């Protein structure tokens, strides 16, 4: 599902340290996502953990990274803004076999090695809510 790429991209970091002038540290990140709603039975959740490599370019400007990812995923009407340590985003994105879905979320940058995000996909009974906890693992990316 292409929307999953938006969710993963919507995960990034925090206040810049003197040694690194970007939003988050580049390198390997562990993303733990908790899904609720959508195809899951009422009251059930599903957790998934994956890794993602953030390049120095990705890490430097998360607003630009989110906009770029939305374009790559054929999303329309993409809006991304930042207020301090909070980045909000919204778009209308393709949802596998079910047309377009609204995607809205926010990301909180706790520091350069930790961020959290919440994303809502779709509306009504088919809506999915994704909460993500992201932590920096290493400056070297796998594979």
Write the element-wise H/E pattern from the N-terminal end onward: HEEHHEEEEE
Order of strands, main sheet, comes to 2-1-7-6-5-4-3
* Low-pLDDT windows of residues: 1-21
State the separation between the terminal residues, measured CA to CA.
23 Å
Largest sheet: 7 strands, antiparallel
Structural class category = alpha+beta
Radius of gyration: 15 Å
**Count of DSSP H/I helices:** 3
Q: Describe the global form.
A: globular
Mean pLDDT metric:
84
**What percentage of the residues does DSSP assign to strands (E)?**
over 45%
- The share of residues in helices is 10-25%
Number of strands: 7
Describe this structure in words.
The chain has 3 helices and 7 strands; from the N terminus they run H-E-E-H-H-E-E-E-E-E. It has 143 residues and is α+β, with helices and mostly antiparallel strands. The chain is 17% helix and 48% strand.
Short synopsis of the structure:
By secondary structure, the chain is α+β, with helices and mostly antiparallel strands. 17% of the residues lie in helices and 48% in strands.
Task: Give the helices and strands, then pairings.
Elements: H1 2-9, E1 27-37, E2 45-54, H2 56-60, H3 62-72, E3 76-83, E4 86-94, E5 100-111, E6 114-121, E7 128-138
Antiparallel strand pairs: 1-2, 1-7, 3-4, 4-5, 5-6, 6-7
Feature tags:
seven-stranded antiparallel sheet; 3 helices; disordered N terminus; single chain; alpha+beta; 143 residues; 7 strands
């Amino acid at each position: 599902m292409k929307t999953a790429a938006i969710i993963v991209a919507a995960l990034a970091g925090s206040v810049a340290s003197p040694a690194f002038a970007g939003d988050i540290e580049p390198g390997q990140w562990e993303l733990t996502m908790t899904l609720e709603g959508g195809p899951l039975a009422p009251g059930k959740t599903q957790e998934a953990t994956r890794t993602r490599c953030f390049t120095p370019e990705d890490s430097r400007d998360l607003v630009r990274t989110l906009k770029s990812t939305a374009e790559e995923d054929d999303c329309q009407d993409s809006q991304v803004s930042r207020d301090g340590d909070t980045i909000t985003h919204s778009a209308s994105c393709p949802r596998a076999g079910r047309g377009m879905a609204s995607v809205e979320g926010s990301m909180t940058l706790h520091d350069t090695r930790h961020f959290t995000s919440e994303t809502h996909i779709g509306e009504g009974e088919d809506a999915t809510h994704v909460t993500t906890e992201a932590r920096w693992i290493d400056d070297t990316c796998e594979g």
